């Protein structure tokens, strides 16, 4: 985990390796990354020529809900077949149906299942609550400042854009089933008085996508909305019912019927079908915490002559790294950063 306190701010290109997690900093001094400015996590909740708001997308809650429903259904299904198998083995000592009924409807087992479901529901509602009590992070390109309100009623934390701490990390997530690559974009705002850093962690599918998430923010702050790809009017957001059915049709068109039945229909049926999409929609449509009046005033457009300008150091470093890109180097080459072999393989496959 990145530090919560910094005596000295890191710099774009700094590299760390700790407890098997490799981390490269993209900011302070947010130079171009050479990656396309896209957000696959639908983080950009509101954008205009003055500011950009980012917060968690709908697909994140759809995945959380689907995981919870699928896990509980998996446990119940496992209990159903295991109790049937055990009752079959004991059919000579007790009639099959009565033995199966006594086993499957055992109140102790169902109390355990209910406890697991309640625990997951608690953590899900806590995660959903964070969306309503936390305003989004607001990036003001005219002031070249960023503001974050930890929760409703707290004092806003302001940071200079060029001092925002940003890094991408590559590690391994290990659970009882498998070890899978784990990639994150981390954005930290540092309190100049205390040195404490408030982090926002954004999971990503791979290292390139994590960098692209940051590049979208950087491109907006430096070049405005024109630097971002134009949203297609018919583009569907991940986590919605429409996106679910689009994925279903795509899966049916690209795979055999057997794989479609067992690889999509069965899994999605046991994980709630479209119910997680509706739950996600409810979470995201709840009333969000607003910004205090001082932030609203801070967010007002400024006359052109009052717009903050990038520092000479940032302009110089941005020019240097663009020259390196023109010679065929990428950002990691320019900063002489070497990620582990497993990470490099993952990236080359994407």
UniProtKB/TrEMBL annotation:
Keywords: Membrane, Transmembrane, Transmembrane helix. The keyword Iron-sulfur does not apply. The keyword Protein transport does not apply. Residues 115-263 form the DUF6708 domain. InterPro entries: DUF6708. It holds the Pfam family DUF6708. The chain crosses the membrane at residues 63-83, 103-123, 257-275. It comes from the Bacteria. This is DUF6708 domain-containing protein. It comes from Pseudomonas prosekii. The lineage of its organism: Bacteria, Pseudomonadati, Pseudomonadota, Gammaproteobacteria, Pseudomonadales.
